[in-house]
Every structure is written in structure tokens, then in C-alpha cells.
Amino acid sequence: AEASPRAEKPRVLLMGARRSGKSSIQKVVFHKMSPHETLFIEATNKIVKNDIANSSFVQFEVWDFPGHVDTSSAAVKPESTYGSCGALVWVIDAQDDHAEAISRLQQTIVTAHRINPQIVFEVFIHKVDSLPDDQRIETQREIQNQLSDELATARLSHAKVNFHLTSIYDHSVFEAFSKVVQQLIPQLPTLQSLLDVLVTSCRIEKAFLFDVVSKIYVATDSSPVDMQSYELCADMIDAVSDVSSIYGGEEGAGFTAPESNCVITLSNRTAIYLREANRSLALVCIVSESVLTQQGLLEYNFGCFREALAELFRVPV
Ligand code: GDP
């Protein structure tokens, strides 16, 4: 149990057909590329092992497999590839014909599951910005049904498969990646309880713990997440890290000020409150304005939270 958390990086694999959007997702989520710039990304032709920035809390790798590599064959060294991998993200272009993508996914699940039954398969039904709302749900249902038929035929109905509707043009891809990453953090239940305690003692409406570099949220309190609160809080991260990198230099290194702390007041008597939690994580909360007048209470409880967090991950605060 004394092993350093860095030694056991959870690994995420990113796979899918050529042009399905893998490189774009990776660039937008982890390298702050703007969605429009992805139009000019060159096609991926080799396996790219992408070690997510070291300053990021989430220590995992995205393996970008070029679309023509058969991910169920020996070419991908399945034993080592799937053996220690926590999640496999499979990107399907929602605009494309799905039949081939689904059959390749099914073959990959067969291979990967045999080697590593713990692996979770996360299907990103991607580029849904191009579909009207009702058609998104319909597309998901179709893909889900076809895949479950194929898995039933392969006697693999027990493989764990989750579906997400994603687009790089809104927050959905960050939200989906958050869910993927959260499953790979063994400390998640503890983090959630810590956030619940914080929320109750300070009368916070919603709290997210964000990885600053990727804007993935690592945990939140147990009240339901609505997309709008998540977007507000994610935008807050952008606003603060832009300012912080202007003043602090070193881009992509998270916040550089010793302890970033920022409040933005909204029109409806609520505010968004950001506190740096450690070098790579920030707490972003939605609170009513009245709560912010109780600085002592906030300071005290936030201090407790930071200490517990440091203890949990044994990293210097
Ligand atoms: P890869 O071969 O799987 O790495 O695919 P790329 O990342 O190169 O993406 C292929 C094309 O899809 C690019 O022109 C991207 O701009 C486009 N693309 C990626 N994600 C999205 C998305 O969410 N929505 C839309 N409309 N286009 C996307």
C-alpha cells in the first residue's frame, strides 16, 4: 500500500475507425485545442501512447490506434495492451454507417475481455452535434441494440459496456471522459463523502473537484449533476487558468499562483467559487451569495477538505 500513486497509472485506451474523431477528442480534452482547429489534424497512422501531462492529477494514457489497425488481432500485442488497461474508449462516428464499427468493437471486446475481464468498455457515440436531439437518442438505441445482439451471440452479455453521446463542440466530451476517469479512481467513494461533508457544512449547492489541466471532474457530491452547473464550473476553470497563466507563465501546468481563489457572482444571487485544492485539482462550487459572507466557516471547512485530500493521495498540498 506504500506504492506511490504515480506507479499505478490507470490506463485508458482510445480506439475507433479512422476519422471517427479520436485525435480531436484527445487534443480538445487534454491539450486545450479549440474544436475548430481539429479540422486540420492529420490522420493518425501509428499507435500514439500519449502520456497525459504530468501536472494533471489523472495519470493515464490515451493510446490512439489508427483506424486500420485490427484491434482484435495480434498486431496490437493484446496481452500487454489490454492486460493493465482500466477502460477502453471506443469512438463511433454518429454520422457514419455503424455496422462495421460495431462489428469491430464486438471483436475487440471478445479479445480484450478474454485477457482482462475487469476492463470497462466506454462507447462514445461521437459528433452528435450534427444530429437533432430526437435522433441522438434513436442512434444510441440502435447502436446499443446491435451491440448487445452481437455480444449475446458471442456469449459476452456480461461484459461491462457504457454509452455516451459526445461532441467536441460542447461540454459533453468532457462530461463523458469525467465518468470514464472516475471509474478508475479507487478513492472515489471517499472523495464523494468528503465533498458531501463539505457541501452540508457550508450549505454549498453543488461542488465539483476538477482536474485543472483537462477540466475533467474527478468527483462531485452525491446530489445529481445537471449539465448547466457543470458547464458553469468548467468555464470557471478556463477563466481562472487563463488569467493564472497570463500572470504565472508556464502554460498547461495548472494554476501557478500559490493558492488560486476566485469568486464570480451571477445575476441570480448565486456565485461560483473556486479554490485550488492541490497542484492539479481545484474545487469549484455553486453557492448562494449569503454563504460567501461566512468566510470563517468556508476557510475552516475548506482547510479540512484539503488536509483530507492530501492524506488520501499522499501528495504535498
Ligand atoms: P481520427 O482519425 O479518429 O483521429 O479522427 P480526427 O480526430 O482526425 O477527426 C476527423 C474529423 O472529424 C476532423 O475533421 C474533425 O474536425 C472531425 N470531428 C471530430 N470530432 C467532432 C465532433 O464532435 N463533431 C464534428 N462535427 N466533427 C468532429
UniProtKB/TrEMBL annotation:
It catalyses: GTP + H2O = GDP + phosphate + H(+). SUPFAM superfamilies: P-loop containing nucleoside triphosphate hydrolases. The keyword Hydrolase applies. One of its GO terms (biological process) is negative regulation of autophagy. The keyword Calcium does not apply. GO terms for cellular component: endomembrane system; Gtr1-Gtr2 GTPase complex; lysosome; nucleus. Pfam families: Gtr1_RagA (PF04670). It is found in: Endomembrane system. GO terms for molecular function: GTP binding; GTPase activity. PANTHER family: GH16429P (PTHR11259:SF2), RAS-RELATED GTP BINDING RAG/GTR YEAST (PTHR11259). Belongs to the GTR/RAG GTP-binding protein family. This is Ras-related gtp-binding protein c-like protein. It comes from Chrysochromulina tobinii.
